[in-house]
Structure formats: C-alpha cells, structure tokens
Amino acid sequence: xxxxxxxxxxxxxxxxxxxxxxxxxxxRRPIHxxxxxxxxxxxxxxxxxxxADVPCFPVAIDDLPGIVALAxxxxxEFVVVGPEVPLALGLADRLQAAGIPVYGPKxxxxxxEASKIFTKELLLKYGIPTAAAGIFTEVAPALAYLRTRxxxxxxxADGLAAGKGVVVATSLAEAEGAVRDMLEGGRFGSSGRQILxxxxxxGEETSILVVVSGRDYxxxxxxxxxxxxxxxxxxxxxxxxxTYSPAEVVTPVLLExxxxxxxxxxxxxxxxxxxxxxxxxxxxxxLTPTGPSVIEFNARFGDPETQVVLPRIESDVLELLxxxxxxxxAGQQLxxxxxxxxxxxxxxxGYPDNYAKGDEIAFPSVLPDRVSIFHAGTAxxxxxxxxxxxxxxxGVTALAPTLRAAATNAYAVCDAIGCxxxxxxxxxxxxxxxxxx
Length: 437
Ligand code: AMP
Ligand code: GLY
Fold this sequence. Notes:
Blueprint: E1 9-14, H1 17-27, E2 40-45, H2 48-53, H3 64-73, E3 78-81, H4 84-89, H5 91-97, E4 102-103, H6 107-114, H7 116-125, E5 133-136, H8 139-146, E6 153-157, E7 166-169, H9 172-183, E8 195-199, E9 204-213, E10 216-219, E11 224-225, E12 228-230, E13 234-237, E14 242-245, H10 252-272, E15 278-288, E16 291-298, H11 306-312, H12 317-326, E17 340-348, E18 371-375, E19 378-380, E20 386-388, E21 392-400, H13 403-416, E22 422-423, H14 430-434
Parallel strand pairs: 1-2, 1-3, 3-4
Antiparallel strand pairs: 5-8, 6-7, 6-8, 9-10, 9-15, 11-14, 12-13, 14-17, 15-16, 17-21, 17-22, 18-21, 19-20
Adenosine monophosphate binds next to strand 7 and strand 16.
C-alpha cells in the first residue's frame, strides 16, 4: 500500500491539557528535509494556552454540525478528537460522511467508554481478564446481589459521568446508598439508569494507551495516573491529578503479558464485533496479585496521561495518528525517548467539588529546560489576563534523565506559578520514587 501524503491542515477538538499536549505534539514534527513546512493546526474550542500556540475557534465540543462546518470552512484535511463526548455523539461518523479523515472512533467504538455494561459484556464474551460483575436496572435485585459479594465493592453507573460515576464502597451501607442514588435518585441521569456492581480489584493501576487501526495497533509508553485528589491517594476521585511515564511497575515481562492477555485480544474482539476502530483505546488496568485485569476502556487519550506520554515519543505523532486514521498502521514502529516524564496537575482549590473560577494566573517568565506548561481550565478575561476557568487548570510536565530530576523541575515551576486558589498534590510519582527510581 502506498502511504497517503500527510495532511497539511489539522483541527484538534477539545479544550483540556490533553488537547494542548496534542497540539504541541502535532506542531512538533521532525523536519523531513530542508525547508519542510509543518502543518497548519487549529483548535476548537481550545483554551488560553492553546490559543497562544494556534488559532482557536469558539465551537463547543458537542456542536457536531458546527465542528464539521468549521473543518470544511477552514479546509481541514485531518481532525483529531480529544474528548469522549463528541465521539459518543458520533462526531467521527459525521466527519467521515463529509469526507474528512478523523482520528477517534465512531459512535459504535466510543460505546466502549460510553457504556461500561457494553464493555463488560465484550470482555466476558472474549475471556479477557476483568472483575466479575452483575448488571442491574432495579434496586431490589441489586441490593440482594450486594449481600452475596465481599466488601469493598464497586458500584458503577453505566454511562458517561465525567469520571464521577464510580463508587468504591467500603461498607455495605455505602454500596446500598450508591445503588439507590443511581437507580432511584436519578444521580447521573440516564447514565445511571443501569448499573454494574463489580468486585473490587486490588493492586496498582496503570494506563495503557493503544493507537488502534482495525486489527493493527501500536502500544504507547506506559504511565500511571493519580486519581484521588489528595496526597497519599486520599479524598475523592478526580479526572487525574498527575502522571508519570514510564510506569516501571509494568516491567517488560508484564507488558508482554498485558499485550498477550488484554491488548491483542481486545483489539481483535473489537474488530470481530464489527467496529472499525480508528483511534486511541485507553486500557485502564489493575495489576492484581494474580495478573493484570481490565478496569475500564476509554475511547480517547487520557488526561493527564497524554501530557507525559506524547512528549516521550520521538516518532512523528502526526504520522502515527494519520496512519491509524487511514488504516495504514501495519508495521509502524515507535521511537521513544529514554527520559522520564512527570506531569503535576494544578487544580483550583475545592476541585472536584466546588471551586472558584476567574482567578488571575501569573506565570514564571522563563521555564527550565524541557518543562512545559499545558493549559486546561484557563481563559483570558476582558483585560487579556489569563484566569482560571475550570477544575483542573494547568499541567506542568517535565522531562529529565531521572524521575526525581523531572519531579524537582516540575515542582519548582508549580511553586513559581502565582494563583491564589491553586492546589496540587505534592506526591506525584512518589510510589515509583520510593521504590528507588
Ligand atoms: P473508572 O471511571 O472506571 O475509571 O473508575 C474510576 C476509578 O475507580 C478507577 O480508576 C479505579 O481507581 C476505581 N475502580 C473502578 N473499578 C474498580 C474495581 N473493580 N476495583 C477497584 N477499583 C476500581
Ligand atoms: N486520567 C484518566 C482519564 O483520562 O480518564
């Protein structure tokens, strides 16, 4: 097959730190020959930091006709979709129908994230390791099932809930409360009309991001997120407070096992079920004492996993995503930098519950070598100042020859950023650092 020429104009859809990292990676193309011109990149809707790098257009991520119209008007040759919501709504289907190549699965593939029950049934059907679970729409049988299982137990809303639809209950009363909340209380709306009650898995979590194109795939560097808001993994779950890569707990032998038992069979199962999946399959894995087990699939890059994984990739990220979108991924190799990467998320005090917006952010005038600030919830006010505009505000990523040096550099920048309501965890990477990395 003759590979198709790389696109010259790209649209990145989204507004988080993940999309800022994607924009930077797509701009940062290795130069192919003297005088090579990089692609034109635009973003919708973006944020203050992305807007400092590329033109941004105020089209909401769920405005599918608006995004297609923007792509057509700007003569975009390739769209890269960041978040799950537009994918689940069918943005990739619409772009393809309009003849615009897209990285990100169609709605059928995005169901792997949009319905935890769909994914659980697929995993069980194909014998891929995952926790035992019951599926319920009625309270009484759900409560009866709970009494037959061990505590802790996990109660999950079926649909998308912005990362908040999972309760890891440490008492029967808490589990019962979660079941009632979801099935009777209307918590999470239609996303919670069906629930999963899943056995609790124990171990360390790792995020395996896989670029998938039909039956072909490329596994990206490993990473580990920190889901809880507080130091020492305390407090409520969040979208992710920080990441590092590589996750050395995933030894080469373990990664081979994850590929053999989880990645390969999952990709084949998805294809066997008739989904022509072209995008990121994010496999959330628990490394249990008896082996790796799937916690969840996401149909997109992770946030903040992307902010450590992409900067470590030496290969041309645009070419990788483009080949996946075009069905030309077979044989694609990945060159990865030997450096360690860490990303510390700066959130607004109070996240993930109530937090203020509109606080001014002051940035250090110079950044240390190989430190990047990725913007997430930021905007510009009328006076042109950068202000907080979301729960997760910034991600500070540092690359260095050791994880410790990367952490030192990232934290120096976190401390130097001025913002009255900033909050960040102090222990990103601590698990691996305490193991002596
Ligand atoms: P999810 O929304 O599926 O990513 O779940 C959010 C978080 O809940 C995961 O990252 C885990 O930390 C935790 N979790 C989900 N399922 C389980 C499980 N079966 N056992 C233990 N923890 C879980
Ligand atoms: N950081 C976890 C996620 O993106 O879902």
